[in-house]
Every structure is written in C-alpha cells, then in structure tokens.
C-alpha cells in the first residue's frame, strides 16, 4: 500500500470526526476534515485525497447527492459512514458508486480493514493475473481455478462471476450490479440468478459452502468477496 495515504473525512459530528482523526493517524494515515457538503466537495476537488469517508447526514446537502457529484470525476475509494441502516439506503449508496458502507456506531478495527482493502483494490492489486487466496488460486488471464493444486471446473458464467467478485475484492456488490455486469440490463429483475450461481461457486471453491469464508452474503444487499 502507498505510504501515508490521505483520507478526507466529510462529517458534521465533532465526536465522530475526532475519533476518526485519532484512529486514522494512529494507523499512519494523513487526514483532512470537512464539516459540510460544499466544503467537502471543494476540498476534494482542490486536494484530491486517496480515499473519502462520507457521512450521509450533512447539514447543507444529503450525502447521497454528494456521492453522485463526487462520482462524476472522483475515481478513488469512497466509504460511507452513516447512522442510516436500511437496506434501501445501503443499496442506493453502493449503486451510486460507494465502495463500502459502515453503519454508525462502527468498530474502528473493521473500519481500518475496510479502508486498507479499498486502497489495495484502487492501486490495481486485483489486476494481477494470478490471485492466491489460501488454498485457492485463480488465473484471471488463463481463466483457470485450482484448489489445493487440483483444477476446479467452472462454467463460463461461474468464472465470470468469480472474476467480477475478485476484481472488486472487499467491496459489496449489489444484486442489481451483479445482474447488469454478468447477465445484462434486461435481467435486473431476476435476483435468483446471482443466488443460484453464488451457491454453485461456493460448492466448488469454499472449504465449507454452508459457512463460506470467501464469498460473504450481505443480507438484502448483495455479496462481498473477502480474499484475506
């Protein structure tokens, strides 16, 4: 990971900002702070950070619209930190381009892990052709999968789904996003497709498909691939 990445905190709650600053600086991150949407958008444009932590409940503009504006040009990771815990809010933010979503109050250890995962992904780690995840080896270029050294046979759709998950390691992929990417825009009303194919993938690559450690379910939202 890059040395001392800069993280912009856009949050209007003083206690949360202070907690984030102390936690991030203790893990060698540089921090910048904005207390409102307009200030955050201006700062991000003038001094683009390596990652943004964005609250949805800002005093001058809803965070969802700030997210949309940022995604018009900002390509680095954005993680949402919000008290809003509904599936609708989470799915909406992820579909608008958020890399991750944590509900307040959150565990600082988990936040740091999510930040590191997002930064690692943004630096192109997922574009290395051969990916190793414990006893699982995936060659994205050759489209081959091995588990414990033995070849695993995947269908074309199963491999495309696994590749999509790996390319977005650590990020929650919504059902709608997966359907658009794998089956096309005309299939967004078929949430059973990802469920069936994820089940098939787990049987082939997980040590225990009933208690998966690689492909995790985000209830009501989608799936997350966790490689480490």
Structure description:
The chain is an alpha/beta fold and 228 residues long. The chain has two domains: 117 residues, Response regulator (Rossmann fold, 3-Layer(aba) Sandwich); 100 residues, Orthogonal Bundle (Arc Repressor Mutant, subunit A). 39% of the residues lie in helices and 21% in strands. A five-stranded parallel beta sheet has the order 2-1-3-4-5, sandwiched between helices. Helix 6 packs across helix 8.
Helix content: 25-40%
Structural class: alpha/beta
> What fold name goes in the CATH topology slot of the largest domain?
Rossmann fold
Question: CATH homologous superfamily of the largest domain?
Answer: Response regulator
- Shape call: globular
- Calculate the mean pLDDT score and round it: 92
- Strands, count: 12
Q: Domains counted in the coordinates: how many?
A: 2
Order of adjacent strands in the largest pleated sheet: 2-1-3-4-5
* Cα-based radius of gyration, to the nearest Å: 18 Å
Q: Which sheet architecture does the biggest sheet show?
A: 5 strands, parallel
CATH class of the largest domain: Alpha Beta
Corresponding CATH architecture of the largest domain? 3-Layer(aba) Sandwich
């Amino acid at each position: 990971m890059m040395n001392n990445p800069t993280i912009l905190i856009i949050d209007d709650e003083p206690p949360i900002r202070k907690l984030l600053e102390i936690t991030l600086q203790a893990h060698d991150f540089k921090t910048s702070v904005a207390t409102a949407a307009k200030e955050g958008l201006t700062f991000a444009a003038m001094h683009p950070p390596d990652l943004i932590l964005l609250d949805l409940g800002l005093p001058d503009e809803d965070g969802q619209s700030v997210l949309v504006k940022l995604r018009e040009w900002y390509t680095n990771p954005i993680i949402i930190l919000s008290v809003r815990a509904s599936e609708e809010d989470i799915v909406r933010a992820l579909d608008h381009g958020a890399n991750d979503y944590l509900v307040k109050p959150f565990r600082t250890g988990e936040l740091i892990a999510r930040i590191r995962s997002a930064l690692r992904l943004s630096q192109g780690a997922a574009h290395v052709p051969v990916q190793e995840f414990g006893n699982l080896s995936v060659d994205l270029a050759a489209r081959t999968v091995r588990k414990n050294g033995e070849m695993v046979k995947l269908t074309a759709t199963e491999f495309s789904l696994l590749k999509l998950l790996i390319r977005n390691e650590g990020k929650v992929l919504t059902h709608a996003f997966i359907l658009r990417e794998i089956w096309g825009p005309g299939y967004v009303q078929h949430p059973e497709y990802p469920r069936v194919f994820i089940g098939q993938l787990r049987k082939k690559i997980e040590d225990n498909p009933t208690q998966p450690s690689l492909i995790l379910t985000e209830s009501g939202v989608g799936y997350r691939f966790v490689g480490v």
